[in-house]
Amino acid sequence: MIILGIETSCDETAVAVVEDGVTEHASLIASQVALHAPFGGVVPELASRHHLENLLPLLAQCLRNARLVPRAIDAIAVTHKPGLIGSLLVGVSAAKALALAWHKPMVAVDHVHAHAYSAVMGRDDVPYPLATLVVSGGHTSIYAMRSAIELELVAETVDDAAGEAFDKVAAILGLGYPGGPAIDQRAAAGNPLAVKLPRSEVKGEPLAFSFSGIKTAVLYHCCGMDLARAASTLTEAQVADVCASFQHTVVEVLLDKLLAAAHAHGARGIALGGGVVANSRLRARAAEAARSHQLALYLAERRLTTDNAVMVAGLGYHLFRAGRIAALDLDATAH
Ligand code: KG4
Ligand code: ZN
Question: Is the CB of 143 under 6 A from ligand 1?
Fold first, then answer.
């Protein structure tokens, strides 16, 4: 069964053709990172306009790369939430038009569930239930995952997403946007115990995350009380220490809560998906944690961690098989 996936929830325009939820025939991503970098973050209006320009040529190229004609496609899967509303609308409108023109069924995909699916994609005999962490620029959530399509939200962040904290800390340090890869790289030369930073704790909600405090702590550590003082006065070694300490603190919090959720929900394994799962320390520490807690580990492949349409088409296949066909009046929703 061949599914065409469309992803436009944030700043990547992505299209993919995937067979039976696993076999990738083609995948294209038009990244807007360079466009938004001068602004230090995604500008929603610019993002939607560029999706509009990029999507149809990307779609045509994707079908050519897959050597497929529209007739060969069984269904169209599209991300319809959550995300930037203008961006989502471009993908959803395109999917509706194609579904109507090609007489194909449409499947509505939740972007965060697709990140969760990316962790188990192509893996046989997954020992559900899993405790699954989706950690990206827009989301930090733990799910009890009972199958590819059954996810129950267990906990989430009450303020910033972890990836957002990486991006903001990188901005404080003058490392550019997106910040995750830059911090990951600088942290390799630093001491993770050099700077003591607050853990993300939320009163009365032991599994919930909060990352606004650590970001502020980094700001005061780097600039003192004089916030106008540029962090560029730090030496390279000091920057590396801040990066390593920040990354260490965030990774330990993410894994501690994921493991606690795994035990609370009788999970047999842990799964991790989303942009921050590209982080080298998170990947290494997740492997150690799974081993010491005797849990199976499902880590999204690095290339599937940031936004892509392969995970959308992959999850779309399972939803389609479960009969979850969307009507043509499908709404895009920000949350
Ligand atoms: O999944 P994604 O592409 O978009 C959302 O759905 O939000 O995630 C993007 C996020 C950004 O915040 C970026 O800084 C972060 O993933 N990221 C990383 C790394 N690579 C990307 N964070 C930490 N370490 C990395 N190596
Ligand atoms: Zn994402």
Answer: no
β-pairing, 106-110 vs 12-19, is unpaired
Q: Which pLDDT does position 239 carry in this prediction? A: 95
Residue 212's closest CA among 162, 273, 139? 162
DSSP structure string for 232-244: GGS-HHHHHHHHH
- 335 closest CA partner among 184, 139, 95, 132: 139
Q: Which residue's C-alpha comes closest to atom 16 of ligand 1?
A: 275
The token pair at 219 is 């700001």
Instruction: Count other C-beta atoms under 10 Å from residue 160's C-beta.
Output: 22
User: The pTM is what?
Assistant: 0.95
pLDDT at 33: 84
Low-confidence ranges of the chain (pLDDT < 50): none
Length of the chain: 335
pLDDT at 231: 61
Any atom of ligand 1 within 6 Å of the Cβ of 279: yes
- 281 and 312 in contact (C-beta within 8 Å)? no
